Amino acid sequence: MRLRVEAFLAYHMPVAADVLLAVEAAPTAEQRLVEDRLVVNGVGPLQTVPDDDGIGRRTWTCAQGDFTAHYRGTLDVERRPEVSLTAIAAARAKLPAAVIPREQWVVVERVED
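Structure (tokenized):
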């Protein structure tokens, strides 16, 4: 499946601050980056570092005042569905209302004789 991801972030730092941008998609065995681009405006130099867990990268910078970060990526995702042989389906009547989409609600009104 091909996915396109886009994020536009706008911030204001009243005083100079180190900023860690962790917005980029990470290549993995199941996810291939076709293209990606991070554009950051209104900050000092950017320093890219690998993530601590070895997946993807993070970008450090120093910002003061207004700055923006715009990320756009295209990914090919190939994941096999996980099958759980131990999962048991719950009866709808036992599910909390918060997990049932409103469009599936049926409103029944009581009519008094």
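The radius of gyration is 23 Å. Residues 2-77 form a domain with the Immunoglobulin-like fold (CATH 2.60.40.2250).
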